[in-house]
Hints:
Helix content is 70%, strand content 0%. The chain is mostly helical. It has a domain at 29-95. The mean pLDDT is 83.
Amino acid sequence: MCKSIGFKAATGNCFAKVLDLHCTAIRLGIYSRSGKTALVVGSLLNLINQPQAVLGLLSLDYPAIQRLDVVKALLTYSVPFLVASYGALTAVVHNQTDSQGQPFP
């Protein structure tokens, strides 16, 4: 996992790097921006994938609400969140410099 996000770390040190990335994401507000993106994109995708259930939820139509697939809805929101977070974190990693002042490849 460390190699896929740009770190050249030993296997034992991977957890520390992932924890450092998590702290960086919190400090830079990446999670809040990714959450906003996921809210907009996930809502649109849910409306496309389950229109009767979503519109039934908005109009409080109980039989239509029962057709809502909760697992699909949660995945529809989590995928844009993860993609936006991963993209932002890889951009941060690639903009950092190593100890000689050279950018990461």
